[in-house]
Amino acid sequence: MAKVKIRYLVIKPGRGGAIRYFWQPSKELRVLGWRPERLPEDRFDAIRRADVLNADLDAWRRGEPAVRSGERPGPAPGTVNDLVIRYKTSRFYTDKAPKTRAFYDHNLTIIRTLMGDVPVVRITAKMVQGTYDGLRIKTPAKANAVIRVLRLLLQHGVREDMITRNPAASPGLIGTAPSGKVWPRAAVDLFVEIADRAGRPSIGTAVLVA
Asked: Do 30 and 102 sit in the same domain of this protein?
């Protein structure tokens, strides 16, 4: 039997030599509401059902309604949760080094907790500043890291035509180097980019959280 590669289609052995089929989305998709599904036992029916689910997933990523498999299981279109999954499936995330992605993931989880259901178009510069000021009271370094990742996320929202400008472009972060001098935002971003390109993402991460 020829092997057929279908996204998220997983084959598992069952009792008595039987074969079971499942549609198993990635961990990131499961967090955002896309649940695994047991597929029909017939191979061709399982493939057809997996194709339907993948078509719905693609429609959701484009911000379109899922019309073939029923109610959309993912987050509401246009929300921060929606933007997170778009960002994490883009090259702007997947091309990053593993340690950099881990740093982003940690802060994206915080962002989803704070504003996951908020429509991206309703996020304002004042809201970003208020979020930063609230986080900074107890953990200044954490506040800087969260808002920097939020800025990257919302910039992807601009690329996705969800918003026309980035409300986190100038969040007024306060970052202090060991010398006591404040680094301009552009200098921090440039340093992180150079560290990533040099294959030393951990150095850039250290600067981000400093």
From this structure: no
Quick check: is 23 in a domain?
yes
40 shares its domain with 13? yes
Instruction: Please tell me the distance from the alpha carbon of residue 8 to that of residue 36, in angstroms, as a whole number.
Output: 9
Spatial distance between the Cα atoms of 179 and 33, rounded to a whole number of angstroms: 46
**CA 165 to each of CA 10, 77, 143: distance values in angstroms, whole numbers, following the listed order:** 40, 18, 22
207 three-class SS: helix
Question: What do you get for the CA distance between the two ends of the chain, in Å?
Answer: 56
Nearest partner of 103 among 207, 210, 205, judged by Cα: 205
pLDDT per position as a tens digit, 27-41? 878 777 788 888 888
Same-domain status, 54 and 99: no
d(CA 79, CA 18): 42
In this prediction the pTM is: 0.56
86-140: pLDDT as tens digits:
898 889 998 999 899 999 999 999 999 899 889 999 999 999 999 999 988 888 8
Range of the domain at 188: 180-209
Which helix H or strand E contains 19, and what residues bound it?
strand 19-23
Pairing between strand 19-23 and 9-13? antiparallel
